Amino acid sequence: MWETTRCRPRVRIHVCFALISALAISAVASGCGGAGGSADGVVHLNEAFDEARVEAAAVPAGIPSTAEWTFESADAAGLWQPLRPWNPTVAPAELALGDGALRVTLTDRTANLGGFLVGGIYASLDPAHAGDWSAVEVEVRASGPLAGVRIGRNLRAGSGTAEDAPWPFESGVGWANAEPADGNQVLRAELFAPDGLEWRELGLWFGAPEPTTIEVVSVRLIPRESRFVDAAAGVIAVGPAPNAPSADAAEAPNSALYMWAPGRAEYSVQVPEDGRLDLALGVVKGNAPVTFRVSATPVGGESDVVLEAVVSDPWEFSARHVNLAHLAGQTVDLTLEAEPAAAAKRGEPPPPNIALWRDLDLYTPGRLAVEIVDASTGERTPVRIRLTDADGATAPVPEAAIGIQYGAND
Q: Would you say 293 and 308 are in contact if contact means Cβ atoms under 8 Å apart?
């Protein structure tokens, strides 16, 4: 990332705490059979999942299973071939089978134009789409320093010239850095290829600063749906995008309610003063749009649809802010529904998809007024800021904010 002095002026910040009630309101719906509040006065609905009434479609049959290759025999190793660099003056990496691993040797003959040693292997896949897979895990051990692995999609036809980089793929779809290690380590690369791309070959492209032998113990190609097959609905840790999950809570501090569509979850809550519901919507696959709907039904009253949105992008969460102030003080059934938005073809059922509801929080909003001035002139000045909560997780973007980058770092 490039930085200039124009982007980082010396500033003074004047903060005015006005109506800062979000951190001081009392917990709502406690002791009345509804979702419980928390110490900060916010009702975190994902934390109250066990109190919700949940219905969801059964986990569908036919979900792709994890594809795994191990190299304990010549037959298994024969499915993988050495990559021919696009630059014809760069030699392919040497391959050999031994000790239950496929050995990929990088030498001075495999150096790219910058002198870095590169090379790898590839396997042909059955017809599939990039949207069917979420990650590649490669278990390796190396004789010397290993920079990491890049994941390539589909071989380029023909060959280049001596002036070209040796990268042999149509596109790169993920990478994983390696750590210094004496034994085995698993390199996990999250895939970011758009949905609908044809996927013919899967390639592993290794890099090292000096001659190194990489022993590939196994390769696993993991379906997107693999995290959601244990139950029709539940709560799971997620990263900044639906298809950027992480098992590390430090990297994925947010939680999301998931449900196989069609599905619904119903909470009994008491709406606080000036009540507001924040949430972020996402889907796991991009070929099956999902209609999200939120409705509020007061006791003895009529249902009120307070939000309806169609989501189809699996690469970012769509933040929404719902005003419930007109229901303040009332106990309501808050219903979250997700259903397929459309079938792929007339007369055919829609493809199965998973709906994600992240950052489901009900609270009384507060106001924080901030004035930022240039320290040298005393004049107000525009700056770029990022809002986070106390744990460092990205906070919901205010409605009045001007987003300059999509995703979690708005």
A: yes
